Amino acid sequence: MPDDNQRKQWFEEQIGEVLDDLYGSALRLTKNRADAEDLVGEAVAKAFKSLDTLKDLKAFRGWIFRILSNCFISECRKRKTRAEAPVDFANEESEEGDFWLFDKLHQPFLLWWGNPEQAFLNELLRDDLINAIDELPHDFRVVLVMAELEGLSYQDIAGALDVPVGTVRSRLSRARSILQKALWEHAQDQGIAGNTKRV
Amino acid sequence: MSKENMIDCEEALSRLFEFIDHELHPVHNHEMDGHMSRCRSCYSRLEFENRLREHLRKATQEKASDELQNKVKSLISKL
């Protein structure tokens, strides 16, 4: 980039385009508005200082989300004040089978006359989905946010968390399963899964 | 797609999320594309998982407050 002013202007424009999404992701990571705003500020400052490491300007979005996640992970390590209990071995390698909403909802004989899967999703409220994410155990929530919401690659997530890619894969699978089970149980409590197949 | 490259439902479902996450090797990706074009059940599952992801992304969309926007602008100007 030609000079400092142009560089700063370009950076500000890029941040402006992703700020809502950065904040949304930060909020799901921290679960707290004030902490989310601090996290975004920290990520923006860090990103500007390391702008020279961004080789492909079109990759800005993925790059800044990686920085945001790295800042969050570093902060967690520094503070060591996680509100939730750390994920233990039993949780990581749960003997409980995976739970998938589709298996509960899909009714092949209704193929042409109804779509219970879509009906189920339509009944879920925004808060239902947010609560299901926020209630995930910390390590599972972080991986899910990074993959599902930020769209980071398994390799990038593994790098940020300093764990093998296989661990990312297994945590993500468990996170999705726990999330879907929570949505199913919530729907049953609310009586919105009443017309769907029961097991 | 030749028969040797065809995968069954069990294989397809085991790779489903990596397919959705764009994490598969191009060869496996091609096999998944082939399977999804032939198997209504697996395609329905794929559609459901994609829709659930869309719902999650939509639900978690936030608008940065004016205060945050100003804070970030001010921060950048000082950098």
Describe this structure in words.
The complex is a heterodimer of chains A (199) and B (79). By secondary structure, chain A is mainly alpha-helical. Chain A has helices spanning 4-30, 33-49, 60-79, 89-92, 101-105, 116-123, 126-134, 138-149, 154-161, 165-190. Chain A has two domains: 4-79, Rna Polymerase Sigma Factor, Chain: A (Orthogonal Bundle), CATH 1.10.1740.10; 90-190, Orthogonal Bundle (Arc Repressor Mutant, subunit A). Helices cover 68% and strands 0% of the residues of chain A. Chain B has 79 residues and is mainly alpha-helical. Chain B has one domain (3-78). Helices cover 72% and strands 0% of the residues of chain B. The model of chain B has no long low-confidence stretch (mean pLDDT 93). The chains are: A mainly alpha (199), B mainly alpha (79). At the A-B interface, helix 1, helix 2, helix 5, helix 6 and helix 7 of A face helix 4 and helix 5 of B.
Structure summary:
The complex is a heterodimer of chains A (199) and B (79). Chain A has helices spanning 4-30, 33-49, 60-79, 89-92, 101-105, 116-123, 126-134, 138-149, 154-161, 165-190.
